[in-house]
Structures are given as C-alpha cells and as structure tokens.
From TrEMBL:
Gene Ontology annotations of biological process type: methylation
Protein name in UniProt: S-adenosyl methyltransferase
Molecular function GO terms recorded: methyltransferase activity
Domain of life: Bacteria
UniProt KW keywords: Methyltransferase, Transferase
Length: 258
C-alpha cells in the first residue's frame, strides 16, 4: 500500500479536521487553522456540505425510493456517512464507496459496516476511470436498477471543466433511467472572502480545488430533470425547519436521469 505522508497537509485530512473528525495530523490542523484565520467561514462550508449530503440522501431514499448508492471521492469517514444515512432510512440499501487515497483506504473498514439487510463495499479507483468504477460497482449493485451517483466536493479537484463534465456523463451513461446525480461543490459569486482564501490556498502548492460559477455546477446536470429547488446554495436545498438559512459559497443539487 502507498505510504501515507504525514509531513505535508492533505485536503481530505484538513476537511476531516474542519468536520470535527480525528483522522488528521498536526500538519493538517496547522494548515486548517491557517485557512480559517483567513476565512473562518470554511468550517460552515464543510459542515453545510455534509448536512446537504445527509438531506439529499434522505430525499433519495424516502421520496425517490432509491436503494443503491455509488459514492465517488468518498473522503475520510466522519459522521453520517452515505451508508449510515441511507441505511438508517432503508436498512436494505446498498452502497459502493470509491476513492484511491491511501489514507481513505486505511480507514475504509469504517465505511464497510452495514446493516444485515444491506451491503457496503469499497473500491480503490479514481474518478478518472469511470468505466472501471461502473464495472467494479456492478459486483455489489444491480446497475439495471436506479442508482444514485454521489459526487460531493469532488469535481472542483478536476481543473479542466470539460473533462469534469465528460467524467460525469460517462458515469451516468452506465446507470439506468430513474437514477440520480447528487453534486455539491465550492462556488463563485456568493462569498468573495472564500474565493480569495481558496485562490490563495491553490497557490501554495497544495492539491488545488477550483471554485466554479454556479452555472458551471448546473452544467453537470445537463440532460437530467432537476429536483426542486434546483441547484442552490447548499443550506437552501430543502432545509430542515422553518428558518431560511444564509447562502454560502457551496452549491449543490439533485437531478434524475429520464
């Protein structure tokens, strides 16, 4: 297995730190603290992204009737992972996680717990291998049945927008009618402070993550039927309770394949 380098900060571990997780090192905490010193709102973005994931999965299970999930770019296990939310509402749900990060792989056993009725699996592949992902997923999921493709905070790592669109299309091509796409990613046009902090971070030599205008995030859903309210700032997507949350620079949505 690839050795884990604990001498340089790592985006998945920094995100884990912001979410309140324990799978990180002092170098990640230092990088995370340096980022929050410039832009404290990043913790809200991380946690709002996670909360959106939970609400969207709950919608997919309870209202759309989905029982199969393909979560690509899983990241480190924290709270309310995809299988935990899905199986809480549908114990027979099946989930395939995909990531190729050695650190995530080391913690994959935490993602492989399952209800007796359901199933979870982990595949060591990258987003850049969509056909291999589908082939591997088919060992656990029945890809003739509706499946939800989860891409949470992942597509911003693909610098070339056309390539990112193509990867999404190729993954969706292997899923049947009635399947869903769930995306949320960092966005431009809502929070200039976030944009400035992220642009500065990208210049440090760390693995870059590119914020995109909202219309480009909407572009990932081309050809799909968007679930109301469409692509919106993640706190505004079917929020719990009566309060209207403030928008942040993270947009997401859910779309159905006709």
């Amino acid at each position: 297995m690839t050795e884990i380098d604990t001498s340089v900060p790592h985006s998945a571990r920094i995100w884990n730190y912001w979410l309140g997780g324990k799978d990180n090192y002092p170098v990640d905490e230092a990088a995370g603290d340096a980022y929050t010193a410039v832009f404290p709102g990043i913790v809200t973005i991380a946690r709002s992204s996670r909360a959106f994931l939970g609400r969207s999965i709950r919608y997919l299970v309870e209202e759309a009737g989905v029982r199969q999930f393909l979560d690509v770019g899983t990241g480190l296990p924290t709270v309310d992972n995809t299988h935990e939310v899905a199986q809480r509402h549908a114990p027979d749900a099946k989930i395939v996680y995909v990531d190729n990060d050695p650190l995530v792989l080391a913690h994959a056993r935490a993602l492989l717990t399952s209800t007796p009725e359901g199933e979870t699996a982990y595949e060591d592949l990258t987003l850049y291998e969509p056909e291999k992902i589908l082939e591997a997923a088919s060992r656990t999921l029945d890809l003739t049945r509706p499946t939800a493709l989860i891409l949470s905070g992942l597509l911003g790592h693909v610098a070339d927008y056309d390539l990112a669109r193509d990867l999404v299309r190729r993954l969706l091509a292997g899923l049947p009618s009635g399947s869903y796409l769930c995306v949320n990613d960092g966005s431009r046009g809502t929070d200039p402070d976030y944009e400035q902090a992220q642009d500065a971070y990208n210049e440090t030599g760390a693995v870059p993550y590119f914020l995109r205008p909202v219309e480009k995030i909407e572009g990932f859903f081309e050809g799909l039927e968007l679930v109301d309210p469409g692509v919106v700032s993640v706190p505004l997507w079917r929020p719990d309770g009566d309060a209207t949350p403030a928008p942040i620079g993270q947009h997401g949505g859910v779309g159905r394949k006709p």
